[in-house]
Design brief:
This protein is mainly alpha-helical and about 140 residues long. It has one domain. Helices cover about 45% and strands about 5% of the residues. It has four helices and three strands; from the N terminus they run αβααββα. It has a three-stranded mixed beta sheet. The chain starts with 17 loop residues before the first helix and ends in a 6-residue tail after the last helix. The model has no long low-confidence stretch (mean pLDDT about 90).
Length: about 140
């Protein structure tokens, strides 16, 4: 939906938009995967960004009655079961076919292209540095 505003990660300078914030969080997951894979180069460890798809869970239970019932109805029609939603995560953890290919984005057990900004190594490094500083951790592993 949009790039992440690295000058306003906590939405203090602009009006909060839950849809954009959610999309930003997904982009940040991919950016972190890109940077973590770079930091782990040569260790034999691969990391992946995984999108499970729409899974029928209770994640939305605190979002109000209308939203809750709407999402439940949608998930009953088009959602994945918990077992189906776990497949891509399991694939990332145990599939030999992606060994050595860390830093990629997986959807339905397949490599997918994500938003262009979410794979930018300079952008990923900057987000990593800002986040490390925010939580009091060193920037390097």
């Amino acid at each position: 939906m949009s790039t992440i505003d690295l000058d306003d990660l906590n939405w203090q300078k602009r009006k909060y938009n839950s849809n954009v914030a959610y999309a930003n969080s997904k982009g940040a997951n991919i950016l972190f995967t890109v940077q973590l894979q770079k930091l782990l180069k040569g260790t034999g460890i691969d990391v992946f960004a995984v999108h499970p798809g729409g899974v029928a869970t209770e994640l939305h239970h605190d979002m109000g009655a209308f939203h809750y019932h709407f999402i439940n109805a949608l998930m009953a029609i088009a959602g994945k079961t918990l077992e189906q939603g776990a497949q891509t995560t399991l694939y990332a953890a145990i599939s030999p076919s992606i060994e050595g290919k860390g830093g990629i984005y997986l959807v339905d057990c397949k490599m997918r292209r994500s938003a262009k900004y979410s794979t930018d190594e300079k952008y990923a490094k900057k987000l990593w540095e800002l986040s490390s500083k925010m939580v009091g951790l060193p920037e390097e592993l």
